[in-house]
Write a structure and sequence with these properties.
- With 165 residues, this protein is α+β, with helices and mostly antiparallel strands.
- It is built from 6 helices and 7 strands.
- α1 packs across α4.
- The mean pLDDT is 92.
Length: 165
């Protein structure tokens, strides 16, 4: 292969690749919960385009291919809501998710004034929970997704960026 994965801000031209990658990546989460109506699988392409246009969205690229993405926005309480972190199944376990998190956290804190970072993951998503704990997130509560999946809410203060794995 010989190419390295690069992390950069997403552009509107990336929206369709992000949409397709998200659909691929979240199949395993859907299977874990027996629910193929989870939010990332029912999101529309137009909605992804809108997020790329207004939110803080980063992609991981291998050549011209988008192989990972993450989104974030600052909420009314000053926290950055980070979501839909995904890495192509063939490239998982190589630190790309942590690099995407670091890019999003840095931009959300430095450019948008986030004071802390918040994310949600399904209560059975042990691989996700392991990554988030490894990069400094701690559980602060629970919630239920609009799709009915029980979620764990995790947070960490801004300034404690994800370390690359």
């Amino acid at each position: 292969m010989g190419m390295s994965v690069t992390i950069s801000a997403a552009t509107e031209q990336d929206a369709e690749q992000i949409f397709k990658l998200q659909y691929l990546c979240f199949q395993s989460e859907a299977a874990l919960y027996g629910n193929y109506r989870i939010d990332p699988l029912v999101q529309t392409l137009d909605s992804v385009r809108a997020e790329v246009a207004q939110d803080c969205v980063f992609v991981a690229r291998l050549g011209d291919e988008v192989v990972g993405s993450v989104r974030g926005s600052v909420t009314e309480d000053g926290a950055a809501a980070i979501g839909k972190l995904c890495v192509h199944p063939r490239l998982q376990g190589h630190g790309i998710g942590a690099r995407l998190l670091k890019a999003a956290e840095s931009a959300l804190a430095e450019e948008r004034g986030a004071k802390r970072f918040r994310l949600h993951t399904g209560h059975r998503s042990e691989v996700n929970l392991r990554l988030y704990r490894k990069v400094g997130y701690t559980a602060v509560g629970t919630s239920e997704g609009s799709d009915g999946v029980p979620m764990i809410v995790l947070e960490k203060p801004a300034g404690t960026y994800a370390a690359t794995a």
